[in-house]
Amino acid sequence: MTCKPSPCPAPEDVDIAALRERYRQERTLRTRAEGQEQYVRPVDDFAEVYEGDPHMPVLPRDPISEDLDVAVLGGGWAGVLTGYHLSKMGVSNFRVIDHAGDFGGVWYWNRYPGLSCDNDAYCYLPLLEEMGFLPSKKFADGFEIREYCQSIARKFGCYEGALFHTLVTSLRWDEAIKRWRVTTDRGDELRARFVVMANGLLNIPKLPGIPGIHQFKGKMFHTARWEYDYTGGDQKNPTLDKLADKRVAIVGTGATSVQAVPFLGKYAKQLYVLQRTASTVDQRLNVATDPEWAKSLKPGWQRERQMNFHHNAMEVPAPGEGDLICDIWTEINRNLAAEFDVTGWPQSAEEYVARREVMDYRVMERLRGRVESIVQDKQAAEILKPWYRYLCKRPASNDDYYDTFNRPNVKVIDVSKTQGVECLTEHGFVADGVEYELDCLIFASGFEVTSDLDRRWGIDVVEGRNGASIYDHWAAEFRTFHGMMTHGFPNQFFTGFIQGGVNSSTTETFSQQGKHIAWIIRQALERGVAAVEPSLEAQNAYVDHIRATAIDISAFQRECTPSYFNNEGSEVVNQKGEKKLRSYLGETYGPGYYVFEQLLEDWRAEGGMEGLVLTKDLVEA
Hints:
This protein is α/β, with parallel strands linked by helices. It is built from 21 helices and 26 strands. The N and C termini lie far apart (about 55 Å).
């Protein structure tokens, strides 16, 4: 099925010039000179925010010292899908290492009330056809996603040898033995032929560096470490009855807060929602999976749906392709396609971009109108309106979020004028010179996504050949071959958004990377190759290619309010001395995800591993 365009204001009813200026003012109001440094690392007093596990006890075990083929660092989707592809390639001597107590990654840690997938679960959950599984509804609950992830890990041997509650402390390449020496906080000394960095996009929780954060005497926790012992309830039954006599504040109004706020507002004696930048929040319409629709699905349906989602969410759908997803992610292209069917489809990229920009402003105006139609208090409604371009922040959807602000015990407080919460005291927080007393402060402040690599990975030492640090190697910019390997770091592979194709379904990106990495590892093992890495020439040629074909979105990024999408608006200086904004998507492949997929397939089919230097029996082949 496909769906109709949304009821947006007509172009003549939207003053784009005025909105552009309003967006600029709102961005300036929120931009902080310190960029990523406005956030506190979860160390020292806050180490428990990252290292602690409220979900499972840490069991004692003996340290391990061994040689192995592959160490996969991370047990979330990237790690599980890498393990899946290694198993499919016949590589079984691998260990998955994660500081969580089980598989699931961010879906292991995140268990806050209301947690669910915020894009189409029929696309997001991988391998549905192979696993014979369908999610129970369009936006699957977090516990269903975690359990499904663990079922894949179980089926494809990822649990065998997995090391949970284990933090990697260092990775060092040993040229003499052509292996990576991996040390952990459990005293392990692993000598891995290959290392796959599968530590994910949402790994290290971040805390806002609010003045006085050490002074507050009440309860504090991060949404990624939700404490049901304090709030009451559990993930599957989030009845937060222990908050009935509590004054609670939640810091942040991103995708996490949008899901949690309705539950906090329902159960807390008083809830303060501290907002720097409003989210776009559309209706959810989370329908249950239709059994008749499920019966009608033909082989290959998931790939078809993923491609349709990707074209409509991140690229351009073909004439007549339609929209199978029908939600906030695909709205702009859905509306444009309906117009193009009448007026004719654009004949150039420039024409499409110009038409898309107009539709962007129209959709955002519709979303602001939605706030007014639901939130009864006009001052609160004005605070909750988003003033920026679509995709400057992660779009959200929820049927109860705005209604929560009609409750007498819920108050939204705008902290944009102080660029975040003004300060904390022993008893609460201060806003506009007024102290609000609290019993509990919850941080919905997200994860380290576009910050410096050492902040994102949390591994003290990552050293390649000759002791070169990956943190120095990539301090100014990424330089890779196919986005998954880099010169000077043999037998090391990278997943995530670095330098390559990015799919609208993150798990599809991880799966493609896992497949490519597993193929290279299998080839190296079969050919008796001790070390494999890109030649400097091949790497430079790939970097030149990806940049020559890139779509320049820098102007759009500079218009956006600060968030993890653009590294809080902070620029970094590359090797050419150019200032660039760091995107959460890394450097994406301009010709498109499926063109990139074909590039990798053609490279593998050729079979010669062109561009890689293969060292066999310690002698270059």
